[in-house]
Amino acid sequence: DAAAGDWSTIEVSVADRVGTIRLNRPKALNALNEETMDEVVAVATALDADDEVGAILLVGSAKAFAAGADIKEMSSKGLAEMYSADWFRRWEDFARLRTPVIAGVSGYALGGGCELAMMADVLITGEGAKFGQPEINLGVIPGMGGSQRLTRSVGKAKAMDMILTGRHIGAAEAERIGLVSRVVADEELEDTAATVAAEIAAKSKPAAQMAKEVVAAAFETPLQHGLVHERRVFHSLFATADQKEGMSAFSEKRSPQWQRR
Ligand code: CAA
């Protein structure tokens, strides 16, 4: 059971083929300390390997998805310690999960919280959500991918503005600049995010994983290489039972019964 564990900073459940991870450090607005990082990455890795899980949903609380990396934990550290621990490297394991990840963001998604949300494949947000990279106001810069993922996702103009001023942006601006997938009423956020996760989880898992793989590759590869990669992955799906089933079901005007192989 991938969800089993004695977690102290998160809550985990599995239902409808969706593994849900809820950040749960309410007194610190879900600030991401080392323990949270270890717990989120460990459980997400286990969920990723579970054939019965087709999507991973990451949520926080109404007030905060996550207000950043834990400032109090980091404040007294020095260069040698940060460097030798390669602080935040472990989050790269989260970004490299192969199962689709949906983030449901309500309230603050700041610093590492914004960066974690940007690691998700689909980002659903409540209309009251606030995104920002306020590290400049702490005398540092983003360290969990903000300068790279934010810039690739919204372009230089908005990334420089957010990272150099540290200002928070609301959900409407976040949607306008392409940072988030959908904005819904705050009271509908949890239901909508869970519904989208269940919808994705119900699909053919190989197809969903390969779809994620090829979209993610668009950020890493030149266009011609990415196009060839996409075609080869597309071709490889013709070796799956789900391709035969999906295309037969269309012709027979019925719903597909995925075997997920
Ligand atoms: N780290 C540690 N503790 C945090 C925290 C953080 N990132 N964010 C909030 N908290 C704590 C507060 O210290 C406070 O604890 P105490 O009650 O013990 O004082 C508690 O959570 C509640 O926070 P506030 O009283 O500040 O709540 P508020 O509603 O007045 O303000 C807020 C909310 C605007 C989000 C404010 O808490 C804030 O600005 N937080 C810090 C945001 C930030 O700078 N994030 C970037 C962190 S660095 C980083 O993430 C590096 C990276 O690239 C990965």
Automatic annotation (TrEMBL):
UniProt cross-references to Gene3D superfamilies, sorted A to Z: 2-enoyl-CoA Hydratase, Chain A, domain 1, Lyase 2-enoyl-coa Hydratase, Chain A, domain 2
Catalytic reaction list: a (3S)-3-hydroxyacyl-CoA = a (2E)-enoyl-CoA + H2O; a 4-saturated-(3S)-3-hydroxyacyl-CoA = a (3E)-enoyl-CoA + H2O
Family as reported in the entry's similarity comment: Belongs to the enoyl-CoA hydratase/isomerase family.
Domain of life assignment: Bacteria
InterPro entries in alphabetical order: ClpP/crotonase-like_dom_sf, Enoyl-CoA_hyd/isom_CS, Enoyl-CoA_hydra/iso, Enoyl-CoA_hydra_C
Xref: CDD domains: crotonase-like (cd06558)
Protein name: Enoyl-CoA hydratase-related protein
Keywords: Lyase
A Pfam family recorded for this sequence: ECH_1
